Structure formats: structure tokens, C-alpha cells
Amino acid sequence: MKPLTLAEILTATGGQTLAEARPYSVTGLSIDSRTVRSGDLFVAIQGEHHNGHDYVIESLQKGAMFAMVHDWEQFRNHESASQIIRVDQTRSALGRLAAYYRRQLPATVIAVTGSNGKTTTRNMIAHVLSGKMKGRCSHKSFNNDVGVPLTIFSAEATDDFLVVELGTNAPGEIAALAAMVNPGVAVITGISPAHLQGLGSLEGVAQEKLSLLRFLQKRGLAVLNIDSLPLLERLPTLTETRVVTVGFHEKSDLRITGFRQEPSGVRFTINRRFHVVLSMLGRHNCNHAAAAMAVGRRLGMDNADIIERLATFAPSEMRLQMLRFGSLTIINDCYNANPDSSSAALGVLDDLEVSGRRVAILGDMLELGEASRKYHEQLGERVAASRADVLLCVGDFSEIVCGSAHRTGGPPMLIQSRRNITELAEELEQWLQPNDTILIKGSRGMQLEKCLDKMKAIGEKMAAPVGSAP
Question: Is the Cα torsion angle 223, 229, 232, 235 positive or negative in sign?
Fold first, then answer.
């Protein structure tokens, strides 16, 4: 980050030092005492498991120039009181300081939100732009009121772009983050039932996601996936903003046609002119690529350069990640799940040409509130309509999914439900066969990746020559 003076920090946050301080500048920012470097501002965040106030003195001893706190009484008479900045609440003060810092940045800021595909789209945009420009994007899923400021502070004065992911669990969170980010480009990947426990309904999700556009800069760009029906039905009228729509929908500005899924990825065409290859699975990833093309064009890139960068993009771990263990093929998509993303993952399993059976291992979709039963019943119906040969379910709603799949009367399949991933993993060997293609999909809290080691062992055992040593 570019240096910030003490005066700037105090003005932006409304804070004050506990004793007269020298007007030093800070050259970095940290919320983790383990990563503090000389010259940093350490911000004491009070989290669910750790309280940053417990590490203030340690951080100052490691070279932090100042520490920002709200629980300040314990530091009033400390010898380092002149390095302690008192604020009303450190999380909100961090956001105010980030908003101030963002206003100093000449970079084009691109904000990405949506019910599905935020991280993939964010990373894809950054990968495309970095072919011609200097910039950075959110680290991991830094998409909340702490992660977004950290992303902003990672930017340098010489950067051309900054891609920021915005997430939400409750009404008003996107608006607060968008006001902080003040983007020049806004991307909405879609609207679907997700985080209903906090947002209440699909209409609540739509209002939350679309609130991003209220904070888009004048004459900015909005990129919207209109394959998302809730988004298509609520397309905003923006008089001072250019809107580019993407998708398979016939009215899309960047329309996807000619989709073909192969074992190594997908091929498709945009506007019947631009032929794109992605080394990742899934129809929905075509929409993410089209959004990245729209952003790349906005920042002056040629179509050919964009397509070349898309061809070299690699998906993040646990997002439709293809693994091979002996004769077993695994589609690891267990980073998270909601109704639309689960249906899309089953579509990937359907579209793949396989030599053996198709196996779907599905975990609970969390944070759906009172609608949980309904959406898990619908998931069972979706499985019954798929080409899956085996359905294995894990979690509190596993019996609902399996029961719905069985009642719907889809193709004959083996159906089993288990309460937890440990129980499932112990029984996998009796259900899997050589040449199976296995989709693993569930919410992050289900931790379905814990069965991968067992699958690897099973796949290697299947591939071992008969009579070989164990």
C-alpha cells in the first residue's frame, strides 16, 4: 500500500492517539500479529475466536508503527500510549479508512457480486486483465467488512486495476461494501436462492445484490448475467451507466452459442465470432468468461488478447476441479452449494461423456432457512431427472433428498443417505466401481473434501495389478 500519514488515519477514522504522537506514516496494514511488519498499522479486530486487542503490544514490539483499538482503557498508561489510536469500533473504522484510501487510488475498481460464481469470475477477470495491465484482486474469499478493506489496502498507487469480491449474509451488507469500494465496473453473476436465512427470500437476495449498482460511478459499466431469470426480470434502468448483458439468452449483448463440453474443459462461441476455450468444466463458466470479456474490453483490451488469456485460466481448488485417482474420475465442487449451483454441477455430470457410471455425492445446502426442506426436495427431483446412476447423500437433509429422488421415479439408481462425511467415507469402497465419474457437491460447512483421501486409496487399489502387495 502507499504510505498513510497519522493525520490522514485520524481524519479518516475519527480516531485520536492516547498520548501525543510523532507524525509518522504507516507503510502497511495488518489485522494478524503473526504477519506484522515494521511500519505497519495494526488493527485490533475482535473476532469470534480471537481478540486482536490481546496482540497489540506484541505487534508494536514487532515494529508496528501504530495500533488501532476500541477497547483502549488497558493501554491508557502504557509506555506505548502514543502509538495507540482510539476509535469507536475497529471494524467500522477500518472500513472508513479503506474508503478514504480507495479515493486516492487511480486504478479502475471492479466489484463482483452474485449468488454463484463470484470467486471464479473475480479471478477470471483479474487473470484476463493481468495479461496487459498491472493490478490485483481479492485474496481467497476476502469479501466481507474486513476482507474488502484488506483487498483495498493491498493496492498500490501504480496499479491499473483492482478486482474486489463483495459477499453478503444479511440485508445492507452489499450497500455498505459498495459505498466503500465505489466501483467503476460492477459485475453481477446472477441471483438465486442463497443465504435465505439472513436475506429472507429470493426478492431479498435480488434487492441485496442489485444494491451494488447504486454505488457505481457515473458513466461506469454494469455487467449482468441475464441467464439468471431473477436478474433478467429485474433489469435496472441506468441512465448514466452502460449496461452489458451476457449469457446464452438470445437478448444478451455477449451471447454464448455452440457450447461443447469435453473432458478437459469447454468450448463455445461469443456472438458467433469469438471462439473461446476454457480449461474448466460447466456451462455456467461460459457466463463468467463472457463477463471477463466485457470487463477486458472496457479497459481497452483486444478480443484476441482476452481469448488468449481465458484459455490459460485455471479454476480454484474445489470448484469443479477435475481429479483422477486410478480409474476413478472426481469432480470436486465442494467449496460451497446452493440450489442453482448444485443444479449446475449436476449438469456438468450429465454433459460429460463417461466410460462407467455417474455418481453424485451431495451434501446439505446450508443457510436456506425455512425454505431448506423445499429446496432439498427440489434437489432430489433434479437428481432423478439427471443421468446419475448412484446418489449418495450426506447431512441432516440427506433423507429428504434421497426420498424425493426415489419418489420422483427417475432412472434406476442406487440411493443411500448418511448423516456425516465420516460415516460415508467408511462405506465408499462398497459403492464405488472402476471407471466411475464422481461429483462431490455440498456447502462449505459439510467439509465433503474429507472423503478425497479415501477415494484416492480406493482408486489406487482398483488400479493395482491382481495379486500385488497391499
Answer: negative
